User: What shape does this take?
Amino acid sequence: MSVVATILSILLTLTFLGVGAGKLAGIEQMKQSADHLGVSPALNRTIGVLELAAAAGLIAGFWLQSLGLAASIGLVLLMVGAVYYHAKAKDPVSRLVPPAGLGVLAVVNAVLLGLT
Assistant: This one.
């Protein structure tokens, strides 16, 4: 695994551990954001579980690279969905940038993991 992929995997892991855990813990800000986007509580918890699973896959990817690759691809799909929901809610571009940026980082990570 390259140094860049290692750093990206760590950053993505830390980000999605926090976000996924926040959704599962029912942090008020997370619930308000889900309500704003029209995401049901059940779907919000499911997304939290998927984010935690992706974080675990990224960690496992240090030993089994195919799991890191699968986790990165899963995060790309989650972030495409997040951008869709923000666009559907007619959020300003500033609210689309974080999930889009994380999606791009996940794409880069997937490409790097797929090349090695």
Summary: The radius of gyration is 14 Å. The CA atoms of residues 79 and 113 lie 18 Å apart. Residues 3-115 form one domain. The chain is about 85% helix and 0% strand.
